[in-house]
Amino acid sequence: MTVKQPVSLKSRGAKDSSMNRPARRGGVQVRERSGIWEVQVNGKLRCDYHQKEHALAAAALHRLSPR
Fold it and tell me: From the CB of residue 51, how many other CB atoms can be counted at a distance below 10 Å?
């Protein structure tokens, strides 16, 4: 039996985390700029937050809300 070691994402050439990717149409994006966390939905700014946790919570609510 062969045991495989886990391979980190960075060693496989993974791209930036989803928080650094450009907004996708129909998607929710969270990113940090100059100490302020911004939430965008469908490429439009929804709100700014001082704390990362608040921004992530808002993004989760947008993802779960009916459209």
Answer: 10
In the numeric block, which tokens belong to residue 56? 């992530």
Query: What pLDDT band is residue 5 in, cutting at 50, 70 and 90?
Result: low
| Nearest-angstrom CA–CA distance, 60 and 62 | 5
C-alpha to C-alpha distance for 37 and 50, rounded to whole angstroms: 6
pTM over 0.90, yes/no:
no
